[in-house]
Amino acid sequence: MPVFRLTEELFFPHPSLANEDGILAVGGDLSCERLLLAYQNGIFPWFSEDEPILWWSPNPRCVLFPKDIKVSKSMKKFFKKQVYEVTFDMCFRYVISMCAKLREDNTWITPDIIESYLKLHDLGFAHSVETWYQGSLVGGLYGVSLGKCFFGESMFSIMDNASKTALIALSRKLEEKGFLLIDCQVHSKHLESLGAVNIDRDTFLKYLEKGLAHETLRGDWKFFNQDMGSQY
The whole model's pTM is what? Predict the structure, then answer.
């Protein structure tokens, strides 16, 4: 299957046309309009700083259904100790910058990516979850929300269980709001341990269509910060 070359036209080929590695297209730009169109079609950018922009739609797709988040007995005990505080949308720039700094594979979160997602955050589509220890940011994640779908992009942790805490908190809040899924993009053992599963692309696109039929919870998510302690 060929990889499509994008032009200035705001267009993506159907995600089913991705090659066996999941690469659909190359080129284009990182404008908010193109990024939102990509997510609406089950496509996301992922590339190294020295590469052109690559657009992906892997098959299978790794997703986490918020109601299926796994909280182990050890994590439940950990939460009872109230070691961390969790917040939403308190410092998006810091979270995405830390995700970029601590990535080992040098992919995806380039300076251009950071600026594009900061714009999406300003528009109320991109959100962060922060984990704090004694006033210091020690973990978190960020992603994009459209309809009843959340597209997770990256997470970081500099203390044990910090990113896991952020993901569990996010799952609980999204479950309360009736979200259908968290797109995790590509499988990992860590995500699997938290309840993420692989589904085929066609099934993912059906969930996406259903989720996008709902209004986007757009804007600042700081209202999630109320009553955070009761969800575990």
Answer: 0.95
